[in-house]
Amino acid sequence: MATSAGYGSDVVIDLLRAVGVEHVAINPGATFRGLHDSLVNYGGRGGPELILTLHEEIAVALAHGYAKAKGRPMAAVVHDIVGLQHASMAMFNAFCDRAPTSAASSRRRHRIRIRARSTTPHAGSSRRAFR
Fold first, then answer.
1. How far is residue 11 CA from its own chain's centroid?
2. What is 8-108's CATH number?
3. Of 41, 55, 62, 95, whose CB neighbour count within 10 A is largest?
4. pTM check: above 0.85
């Protein structure tokens, strides 16, 4: 376990610990891979514990149920755009039930580089590779 925060996502883990979040439900993906990495490597055995879910709405509903059963907040990390849309009904349910849940999302900058694979055009078209 790291001793000092080296990335912004490590600071988020420290914040979750400070407010007493013991568990984080996630549906892993590329939009928050930095936070996922910090949960595993920086958080380590000191928590919060990572709970894998198969859908964003399930992650938030799990946090809602945990908050009702234990009386303590649980966090859910969901994907941006569509993930937030999928989780919105569960967030509304937790809001109506006054359950102490926390949902976080992230947006990763995507960069597509185009480079020619071959210097010789093939039948009048150029071949491009996306990386």
1. 15
2. 3.40.50.970
3. 62
4. no
The number of angstroms, rounded, from the C-alpha of 39 to the middle of its chain's C-alpha atoms is 10
Tell me the domain boundaries of the chain: 8-108
Name the CA dihedral angle for 77, 73, 59, 15, rounded to a multiple of 10 degrees: 10
Q: Which amino acid is at 115?
A: R
- pLDDT (tens place) for every residue of the chain, 131 residues total: 446 778 888 888 899 999 999 999 998 877 788 888 888 888 887 889 999 999 999 999 999 999 999 999 899 888 888 888 888 899 898 889 998 887 777 666 545 455 545 455 554 444 444 44
